[in-house]
Write a structure and sequence with these properties.
The protein has about 280 residues and is of the alpha+beta class. It folds into 2 domains: about 120 residues, Aminotransferase class 4, branched-chain amino acid transferase, N-terminal domain (D-amino Acid Aminotransferase, Chain A, domain 1), CATH 3.30.470.10; about 160 residues, D-amino Acid Aminotransferase, subunit A, domain 2 (D-amino Acid Aminotransferase, Chain A, domain 2, Alpha-Beta Barrel). Helix content is about 30%, strand content about 30%. It contains 8 helices and 16 strands. The strands form 2 sheets. Strands 7, 8, 9, 10, 11, 12, 13, 14, 15 and 16 form a 10-stranded mixed sheet that branches. The protein has a 6-stranded antiparallel sheet with strand order 2-1-6-5-3-4. A hairpin with a 3-residue loop joins strand 14 and strand 15. It is globular. The structure holds N-(5'-phosphopyridoxyl)-D-alanine. N-(5'-phosphopyridoxyl)-D-alanine binds next to helix 6 and strand 14.
């Protein structure tokens, strides 16, 4: 596997980062995950725009122009195998003497990119859907930043795994749904798609945007507004989206069936529309 680190392409085994790197010490950095379909990065400008938003959010100058990022992305895809891949981009505030405040003068950021094969979701997962648990959203108030400080997300996802499930649906203030530990969540009720608004309490998902675009283009009614906890439990269908999972049906929550307990008509429609759209 060939990765990119600070201006060079190299085998992953040769890649080295200082133990003083602020990503390692403080989780002081941001990242992106971008799907690659048929060896072409999907929605790259949108992902690079979100990366800029994350960098702005942590006051870290963007080390590369859009053209430079595009070159890095195309090169790393070319140097690795697999028709479908997922790209990981990671920028930290660099290596400096340990001090919470930003290094002054600034040090060069650490820029890392790698790509891995992206397997299609197994047919049985599409047929049966996935189960989720719910938990209080105990993260910070800048969930719109794609921060590499993922400890809350790690612990929340682990809750799902320990319950034999795929994802944890996050409920803020015991009141409303924000997203999943590493995904966005949609509620389907009476043929309508309900989506939480893109604010500081959730990551503005690129797949989330694609789903809303596809829905609008195909006459599927959508409402973007706060989605209450009760609406999650009373949903006809629940959908999970992310760059690596595309769209999945959530068929059980906290051990109880969602609607019929089987993937529904809205899932089937959006899944097919997404497949057509991504190629
Ligand atoms: N995670 N919300 C959170 C907290 C996420 O971490 C992700 C994606 C999403 C979905 O966003 P998108 O559609 O742009 O992938 C929502 C990636 C896949 C990850 O951390 O691996």
């Amino acid at each position: 596997m060939t990765i990119y680190l600070n201006g060079e392409f190299m085998p992953i085994a040769e890649a080295k980062v200082s133990v003083l790197d602020r990503g390692f010490i403080f989780g002081d950095g941001v990242y992106e995950v971008i799907p690659v379909y048929s060896r072409k990065a999907f929605r790259l400008p949108e992902h690079l725009r979100r990366l800029q938003h994350s960098l702005d959010g942590i006051k870290l100058p963007n080390p590369h122009s859009e053209a430079e990022w595009t070159h890095i992305v195309e090169e790393i895809i070319a140097r690795n195998e697999g028709e479908d891949q997922y790209l990981y981009l990671h920028i930290t505030r660099g290596a400096a003497k340990r001090d919470h405040a930003f290094p002054n003068p600034p040090v060069p950021p650490t820029v890392f990119a790698m790509t891995s094969p992206l397997p299609a979701p197994p047919a049985e997962l599409l047929a049966s859907g996935v189960c989720c648990v719910t938990a209080e959203d105990n993260r910070w108030l800048r969930c719109d930043i794609k921060s590499i400080s993922l400890l809350p997300n790690v612990l929340l996802r682990q809750m799902a795994v320990e319950a034999g499930c795929a994802e944890t649906i996050l409920i803020r203030d015991n009141e409303f749904m924000t997203e999943g530990a590493a995904s966005n969540i949609f509620v389907v009720k009476n043929g309508k798609l309900l989506a939480p608004p893109k604010d500081n309490l959730m990551l503005p998902g690129i797949t989330y945007d694609v789903i809303l675009e596809i829905a609008a283009a195909n006459g599927i009614p959508c409402e973007v507004r706060r989605v209450m906890k009760e609406e999650v439990f009373a949903a006809d269908e629940l959908l999970l989206t992310s760059s690596t999972k595309e769209v999945l049906a959530i068929t059980h929550v906290d051990g109880k069936p969602v609607g019929t307990g089987k993937p529904g008509a809205m899932f089937a429609r959006l899944y097919q529309l997404y497949q057509d759209f991504k190629r």
